[in-house]
Amino acid sequence: MSQSEQPQEQAHGPLLAKAGKYLTFTLADETYGMGILKVKEIIGMMPVTSVPRTPEFVKGVINLRGKVIPVVDLRLKFAMEAIPYTDRTCIIVVEIDTDEQTVLIGIVVDAVSEVLNIREEEIENTPTFGSRLDTDYIMGMAKMDGGVKILLNIDHVLSSQEISALEQTGK
Amino acid sequence: MAYDQLKNLVEKLSCDFVLASPSDPESLSALLPVLKNIHLQCKSLSLKDEARSLKTARSLIKSVLNGKESAPDDTMEALNGIFTSLSSSVYDLGAFETTHEDDVQEMDMKGPEPEIEFVLDEAEGSDPLECSDPMIDQIETTIDEFGHIIAGFCPGEIPDLGTMLNILEKLWNLSQNCEPDTLANVAKACMNYVETMTLEEIYNTKPIEDGLILLKALSRHMKKGSPFIFDTEDVLNLLEPHPADSSPDVNRMSDGKSDDMESADAAAEPLDDDPSAIAPVPPEPLTEDDIEILADFISEARDNLENIEIHLVELEQDPTDTEIINNIFRPFHTIKGVSGFLSLDKINKLSHTTENLLDAARNKEFLINDVATNAILKSVDTLKLLLSRVEQGVQQGLKPMDGDIDVEGLRDLLKELQKTLSEDGISPPIGKILVNKGVVEPEDLEASLAVQKEQPDKKIGEILIESQKASVEDVSSALIDQKASKKQAAAQVKVSTEKLDDLVDYAGELVIAQSMLRQRLSQDPELTQNVAQLNLIVSKIQHIAMSMRMIPIKATFMKMIRLVRDLSQKSGKQVSLLMSGEDTEIDRNVVDALYEPMVHMIRNAVDHGIESAADRENAGKPDNGTINLRAYHKGGHIMIEIEDDGKGLDKFRILEKAMSKGMVNPEADLTDAQIYDLILQPGFSTAQQITDVSGRGVGMDVVKDGIEKFRGHLNIDSEHGRGTKFTISLPLTLAIIDGMLVRVGTERYVIPTTAIQRVFKPEKEDCFTVEAREEMIKERDALIPLIRLQNIYGSEKSTIPPWDSLVVVVESKGETRGLLIDELLGKDEYVIKSLGANLEGIQGMSGGAILADGRVGLILDVQGVFTIAQHSD
After folding, report:
1. Fewest beta carbons within 10 Å, which of B61, B310, B464, B872?
2. DSSP sequence for B721-773
3. Is the pLDDT of residue A94 over 80?
C-alpha cells in the first residue's frame, strides 16, 4: 500500500498535486496522459488469450514473465471504433489500486507518445459534458503547445467493480 | 569512603591503562566506564579540575576508538600524563583528607549503616571469594561481553536490551555457584533493571554502567581470591527500577536499604501488579511502523506459542528435563519482552507470570505437574486469543481491544500454583527417574539421599551403585534419559510467499525461454551442448523453486499431540499418539487444508473409536489406546493415515441406521467399503451419546468435502473390534494440475485429467439430437449429453458435426457430459495461475496456465461448464 500511495498524491490527489510527470499516448486523434508512477512498463503487442464471458473491452490475458495479467483495450473501453493492431500498438502495464490490493493490468493504446512534465497552471478542471459523458475518471485537461491532453485517473478508469459488474451483465 | 572508592578506581585505572594499547580497541573501550565512574566520584568530592581532565581523557579515548586520531601514540602519551597527574592529586587528597574531615564526614553520614553491615557480613563469612578458575574466566568473558554491548548501546535498541538480558542471565547462572553471592546479586539486580528498561522505556543507562564496573571489580577480586570489601549497596540501590528521580548528579549514597536481593526483586514486582492500566480507552489508531512491528510480533509469537505447546507435551514425559523447561521458558521470555515494548499490557503481564512459574521450575524449586501444565496451556490459549485481537486491531489499523479478556484470574492461578508447588518441592531428578523405572525403591532412594547429605560431592547415582541398589547400566540409561536427545534444527530463513511465487514464476519462464532457444538451435554442436547443459540447470532450478513451497507436515502433526492430550483428559480415556513420517513434505497450502479434517478425525477416533479402559480390558487390549498418525508419499500424492486401535466401525449398525434414515435401499447389496462410505454422507452420526468432544451429526461429510475441495480423497478401512483406519490422499501441491491441452476453434483449453473419463471419435450413427437443439451421444449403451465449448464460450456457434470432432467425456459430481473439441494437443502438468483479481470467479474457468509457447491457456472448471451449459439455450 505504501508504494501506491505516493503516485496517488503525485498524479491525482487534490488540485495542488496534479502537476507532475505524465506518460502520454494516443487513441484515435486524441492524446491522453496518465501519472507516470502508475506505469510499470510498456510492452509491444503480443498474442492475447481471450477470456470468455467478460465484457468486450477486456481483450483477455497475457503472460507477463510468468504472471497472468488481464488486458483491456482502451479504445473499446471508451466506446471508440476498434481498429486492427499495428506495429505502434502498445500495451501499457499499469498498477491499479483496488480496495484490497494493487493489481497489474495491461492497457492497449494506439501508440505511446512521450513523458511530459505538466505544470499546475497548464491543467484545467474537467468541463462537464452533460450526461452524455461520464467524466469521473478524467482528472483534468492540460493545455499544451501540442494541443490538449486528457489526463486520466487510471484507477477510476479500470476499477475492478466495473469489470466485474459488466461481467454480470455480460452473461 | 567515597575517597577510598575513588582511590581504588584510580588504581584500577592506572593498571588497566598500562595494559591498554591503541591497537586493541577493546582494552581502550574498557577504560571508558571506569573513567566515567571516577569522573562522578570527583564531582561528588568537588574535585573540579580532575573532573575536567577526566572529560578530556574520555574524549581522547573516544577519538582513538573512532580512528579519528592520526597519531594514537601521541594520544596515549597525553592520556598517560592526565592519569599520572590524576593519581598524584588523588594521593594528595588522601594526605589532605584529615583536614577536610567535615566534607568527608558529611559523605559518610549518609550511608554509614549499610557499609558497616556489609563489612560485618564479610567478617562473619570471612571466606574469600571462592570459585573455580575456569568459572571465573567464564564470568570474566561474560562481563566483557556485557561491557561491549553497553558501550555500543543506544536508547531504544530493544534487540540490544534482549542480548543484555541474555548475557546477564548467563552471568547470573554462572555466578550462582560462587560464594558469597554478591556477584549473583549484582547480576540479578542488573537483570531486573534492564528488564524494567525494556518495559518502561527508561533510557538512563548509568545504573547499568555502574553495575558493570562493580561486576568487573568483583570478578577481579574473585580471581585474586581476596575478599571484596566494597559497598555494593549504592549500586544496587541505583539499579532499583525507579531511577527516574535519581539523576546521575544526585549523591549516589542516598538512603540505603539493607536487603539487597529482596529489594531488587520486589522492585520488579510492582509493574506486574499495577492494575491501573486496564482502564477502558477508546482504540487509538496505529502508525504504519507500529503495524509492521506488530505484524512481525504476531507471527513470531504464534511460532513461539506453538513451540511451547510441543515442548510442554514433551515435558509431561519427563518433567525433570531442565532443557525442555528452558525451551518453554525462553519463548515466554521473548513474548514478554517484546509485548512490553509494544505496550501490549495483557500479553505482557500474563507471559510474565507464566514465565515466573517456569523460572521457579527451572531453578528446581519444584516439578511441573499436570495441574501446572494445564495452567500453562491455558495461558498459551489466552495468549493466542489476545494475539488474535492484536491481529484484528492491526487489520483495522487500531490498537487492540481486549477489555473483555480476563488475564487476572489466570495470573492469580499461576501465582498460587507457583506458591503451592514451591512448598511441595522435588526429589532429585536422577533418583526420581530410577524410581519411576522401578529400578530403585523409594525407601532406598531416601536412604541414599541421606548419604548424599553427608558426602555432598558424590552423585546420587554413584551412591546408589555403591550401595548396590542399582546397576551401573540402570544409572547410565537413566542419565541418558535425563539428557534426552537435544535435536538441532537446521538453520532456516523466513521468506515471504510472494517472493517464492515470483521465483516459481520466473523459473517457469526460464523453462519456456530455454525451450524456445532449443527450437532455434543450429547445427553448431558446441552450442547444442551448452544448451543441453542449460536445460539441466534450468530444470534443477524449477525443481528447487517448486520444492521451496513444500514444508514438512511435522508442524500439523505436532498440533495433534496437544489435541490428543486434551481429548484424552476430557474423555477420561488413556490415549497415546504415535507418529511416523513427520518429515514428509507437502505444499504449505495443502497443510492448511489438512488441519481441520485431521482434527475432526482424531476427535472421532478418541471419542468414538477408542473404548473406555474397562471395555478395552474386557476386549483383551492394553488399557492405553493408541492412535497412529502416518504420512508418506505415494504416486504424486501425499497419504495421511489416521489409525486407531479402538472398537472399529460396526457395519451392521451403520447399515441399520442408514436404512432407518432412508439413505440406502434395504435390498441393496453393499460391499464393506460402500457401507463405510455411508458415514461420509451428510446427516450421519453413529454416536449414541452426544459429547462435548464430537458427535453432532455434522462431521464426516464436512471432512470429506474439505478434502475433496483440494482434489483429495478419503478412504476408510475398518475391522470390527480391532480399529479403524482413515486414509487421506491429497495432491502434493495445489499449484500444479495434471491436464490435457485441447484446441477448440482458435482457443486452447486445459481440461483437468482427473475429470476426464475417456476421449473418442464418435461414429455418425451414435449421434442424436433432441428437439434439433440438444445433442446426445451414445457411448457403450449410455446416452451422454454433448456440450459445445464454442457455443458457450465463443462468439460464433460452431456447426461442425460431432463425428468430425472428438468427444471428451468428463465427469463432475456424478454427472457425465461430452465436450466437443477439435484437437487433442497433449497432456502435461500445468502450474495454475490466477487470472488476476479482476477476472477471478469467471464461471467455468479455474485459472490460467502458461503453455509451452509462453502464451496463456485457460484451465476449464468442469462443474462450471456444466452449469453454464444448463442455463444457456
Report:
1. B872
2. TTEEEEEEEEES-SSEEEEEEEEETTEEEEEEGGGEEEEEPPPGGGEEEETTT
3. yes
Instruction: Specify whether B25 is located in the same domain as B110.
Output: yes
What sign does the CA torsion over B493, B499, B505, B510 have? Answer: negative
**Any CB–CB contact under 8 A between B872 and chain A?**
no
Report CB contact under 8 Å: B506, A65. Answer: yes
What residue in A sits closest to B846 (Cα-Cα)? A51
- CB contacts, 8 Å: A49 with chain B: 747, 848, 855-858
Using a CB-CB cut-off of 8 Å, the residues of chain B touching A63 are 850, 854-856
Q: Same domain for B91 and B199?
A: yes
Spatial neighbors of B312 by CB under 8 A, at least 6 apart, are: B328, B373, B376, B377, B380, B562
Can you tell me the distance from the alpha carbon of B331 to that of B304, in angstroms, rounded to the nearest whole number? 5
pTM score over 0.80: no
Residues in chain A with CB shorter than 8 Å from the CB of B508 are: 66
Whether the predicted pLDDT of B260 surpasses 50: no
CB-based contact A103 B838, cutoff 8 Å: yes
| pLDDT at position B527 | 85
- How many whole angstroms separate alpha carbon B601 and alpha carbon B725? 10
B700 plus B817 within the same structural domain:
no
Helix (H) or strand (E) holding B244: none
Find the residue in A nearest to B289 (Cα): A2
Say yes or no to pLDDT of B675 above 50: yes
Answer for the pair A58, A75: CB distance below 8 angstroms, yes or no. no
Could you tell me if B792 and B811 are in contact, meaning their C-beta atoms sit under 8 angstroms apart?
Answer: no
Kindly determine whether residue A68 and residue B833, on different chains, have CB atoms separated by under 8 Å: yes
Return the CATH number at B353: 1.20.120.160
Judgement on whether residues B222 and B335 belong to the same structural domain of the protein: no
Rg of chain A, C-alpha, whole Å: 16
Asked if the structure places residue B539 within a domain, the reply is no
**Which residues 6+ apart lie within 8 Å of A36 measured at CB?**
A11, A20, A21, A22, A23, A115
As a whole number of angstroms, the distance between CA B679 and CA B682 comes to 8
Residues of chain A neighbouring B835 (CB-CB closer than 8 A): 51, 61, 68, 70
Angle at B778 between CA B775 and CA B780, to 5 degrees: 155
Those residues whose C-beta lies under 8 Å from the C-beta of residue B725, and which sit 6 or more positions away, are B641, B642, B643, B716, B717, B718
Q: Are A27 and A78 in contact (CB under 8 A)?
A: yes
Rounded to whole angstroms, the Cα distance separating B641 from B630 reads 5
Burial profile B292-301: b = 16 or more Cβ within 10 angstroms, e = fewer: ebbeebbeeb
Check residue A109 and give its pLDDT.
93
C-alpha cell at B392: 484484528
pLDDT value for A115: 92
Q: Is residue B524 part of a domain?
A: no
Q: How far apart are CA B513 and CA B531, in angstroms?
A: 11
Burial of B818 (0-12, 13-18, 19+ CB in 10 A): buried
Query: Is B17 found in the same domain as B62?
Result: yes
Tell me: do B584 and B709 sit in the same domain.
yes
Domain shared by B569 and B674, yes or no? yes
Q: Clarify whether residues B266 and B297 are in a common domain.
A: no
pLDDT confidence band for A112 (50 / 70 / 90): very high
**Count of CB pairs separated by less than 8 Å, A with B:** 83
Q: How confident is the model at residue A41 (pLDDT cuts 50, 70, 90)?
A: very high
> Residue A94 belongs to what domain range?
2-169
Whether the CB-CB separation of B256 and B114 falls below 8 Å is answered with: yes
B187: closest CA among B147, B215, B158, B223? B215
Q: What is the pLDDT of residue B152?
A: 65
